[in-house]
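thought: fold this chain, then report.
action: predict
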Amino acid sequence: MSATPDDELIEILSDQELGRTLVRLATQVLENVADSRALMLLGIPTRGVQLSKVLARELEQLSGHSIAQGAIDPTFHRDDLERIGTRLPQLTTLPTSVEGRQVVLVDDVIFTGRTVRAALEALQSWGRAERVMLLAMVDRGHRELPIQPDFCGRVVPTRRSETIELRLRDVDGDEGVYLRRFNLQD
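observation:
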């Protein structure tokens, strides 16, 4: 589905609310790891990568030290490529080995759970983390697998025909979370 001028765009989180939500999520992550120096954030393309960078900056401010941050591309581990279509794979970039690390997979929106399942499989091919957690800015429901985020910014029940858009200043020039209702016409 592509956006048209007739689509309805509803603000879920404003710029300020998104900022507060990021601080809350960063605080929750720090509260749940014994050693923040063992923490590694891995963003899931596409928006999860940018979100993990923003979150890493927030965690660095709270912890007083840098946080390992990278990206993990689950493309070749997906079981639903025929349904979602293929896309160009993104580069997996690991700042260091995952062995013995507290890994937080970061995604903008969790939907069916299939992307996260594929990301977990991709991560296993790089080693054995001590612990893997999941952070999602928005949980929109419709799970097909028993996967739930450990940290969630907002739960927004949606229709399958709707989408959630995370906008980040570094990429979009503005920030917020929006629900897009498509005005489907015959």
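thought: worth noting. The chain has a mean pLDDT of 91.
final: tokens above.
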